[in-house]
Design a protein that fits this description.
The longest helix is centred in the middle third of the chain and has 15 residues, at 42-56. The mean pLDDT is 92. Helix 1 (12-21) runs parallel beside helix 3. This protein has helices at residues 12-21, 27-38, 42-56, 62-74, 77-90. The chain has one domain. It is 70% helix and 0% strand. The protein is mostly helical. The protein is built from five helices and no strands.
Length: 91
């Protein structure tokens, strides 16, 4: 689980994705993800955590991928497309 202040203000799907991958990443990735999340950029943190999972070979469960899709549906433009592409690489 990612340790950030004000968890109650973070989007539930973003938090689910972050919690599902964060502890599986090396410390260098964790630091960057936590910084994005703490600065109110949890959706960028989701993109970063997905990139980290790909780069480090972390296996991601289907529930996390479903949460990524829900985030993409609620987003628009390039961001939605990028996280969908990342999720596809993790399937």
């Amino acid at each position: 689980m990612i340790d950030v202040a004000d968890r109650e203000f973070i989007d539930a799907d973003a938090l689910f994705v972050l919690d599902g991958i964060y502890n599986l990443l090396p410390a260098s990735w964790q630091h960057s993800v936590r910084q994005d999340c703490e600065s109110g950029e949890e959706f960028w943190a989701v993109e970063l955590v997905l990139q980290g999972a790909i780069e480090t070979g972390v296996a991601v469960n289907k529930g996390v991928l479903a949460a990524v899709e829900r985030i993409a549906v609620g987003s628009d433009g390039d961001f939605a497309e990028r996280i969908r592409r990342l999720a596809q690489r993790l399937e």
